[in-house]
Amino acid sequence: MRNWRPDRDLRGRLGGHEPRGRRPGQLAAPVFLAVITDRVIAVIRQHVLPLDTESAWAPLGRAALAGLRLAAVVALYLLRIVLAPAPRPAVAVPRSAR
What we know:
Blueprint: H1 6-13, H2 28-48, H3 58-83
């Protein structure tokens, strides 16, 4: 084992093939399956649920809108505090100047 190298030993154990990652064409099948599955679920949902059913995304949208409103109010109050002139302490006028 004088000339032993891990890559040479690994290739020998794998039958002469080197391990590789995914090829570009292998990604298309799972993406295609995900798109088809999503469309099938949407069609079934449309036919099974009543027409006036609220979207599953509506609560998330309302929460995001409330969060944006809160962030806007906080930002405006912080801007008001930063830009407002600082109150100056009353300066004592000497009695002789009156």
